[in-house]
Amino acid sequence: MSTSTSPTPPTRIGLFCGSKAGASPAHILAARALAESMHAHSIHLVYGGGTTGLMGEVARTLVKLSGKDSVMGVIPSTLLGVERPGENPAEKKNNEKQSLLPRNWARRMGLSGGAASPGNGSQAPSQEETGKLLLDSEFGHVTIVSDLQIRKKKMMELVRDGGPGSGFVALSGGIGTIDELFEVVSWGGHGAHARGVCVLNVEGFWDGIIDWIKKGMEEDFVREKAVGRPILGNLTQAEDVVEWLRWYDEMRMKERESKMIG
């Protein structure tokens, strides 16, 4: 009598990063290097579904190298069809609401006429449509959800349920990146997932956050998840991100086995 076993899911890295390229070219280079390292190790990407800046660069590069099945984007319906400011330099300077998505994003992602766009009179996807609409593009598969919080939860679940070595990494970014990073750190502390979380620290971008965590530990406000397992890894090379997340997962499994034996 034969028994069937479920296939091992792919290793997945959840990415948080900016929708802009940053002032230094080192940020884009790091984004490409991360995608190349993920391709070399057959790792899938889970990200926020945007197509610009560091976010778009990692997704686009990995799709070119590994194919569209290697990338899963999760985006709120409220961001579909949003356009960037016009090409006029003065208009760009005065417009403070830079979009996550480029002009004609909805058309590029395969939508036809139904995407939400402020002021254009169209409707956002209905409750029945959100979470079910899967689109193929040069940026991989994209699932539409209803809001930002559901996007974060969906991304966390995809990584949580990934194969060995799955985890989260933050490249350089703004307030949204900080929010996503620390939410997933907090969720890990409360048992929602057991994956490693790290930053790819380009040109010292994350030094202030790392120092804050160290200070919090000194003052007994912050503690490690376990001895030798930091709450936030600090890496400077893309290849090290893959190796660190793999190491973190191995340490976690050893702790689990030790507790079972004990």
Strand content is 5-15%
The general outline is globular
Main sheet characteristics: 8 strands, mixed
Q: What's the total number of strands?
A: 8
The secondary-structure element order is: EHEHEHHEEHEHEHEH
Q: Reading side by side through the largest sheet, how are the strands ordered?
A: 4-5-3-2-1-6-7-8
Task: Tell me the Rg in angstroms.
Answer: 19 Å
Can you tell me about this structure?
The protein is of the alpha/beta class. Helices cover 40% and strands 13% of the residues. Strands 4-5-3-2-1-6-7-8 form an 8-stranded mixed sheet, sandwiched between helices. α2 links the parallel β2 and β3 (71-76). α1 packs parallel to α2 (53-66) and α1 (25-40) packs across α8 (238-261). The two termini are 34 Å apart.
Set out the fold topology.
Blueprint: E1 12-16, H1 25-40, E2 44-47, H2 53-66, E3 71-76, H3 89-94, H4 105-108, E4 134-135, E5 141-145, H5 148-160, E6 167-170, H6 175-189, E7 196-200, H7 207-218, E8 233-235, H8 238-261
Parallel strand pairs: 1-2, 1-6, 2-3, 3-5, 6-7, 7-8
Antiparallel strand pairs: 4-5
Helix pairs in contact: 1-2, 1-8
Compact description:
With 262 residues, the chain is of the alpha/beta class. The protein is built from eight helices and eight strands. It has an eight-stranded mixed β-sheet, with helices on both faces.
Comma- or semicolon-separated keywords:
alpha/beta; eight-stranded mixed sheet; 8 helices
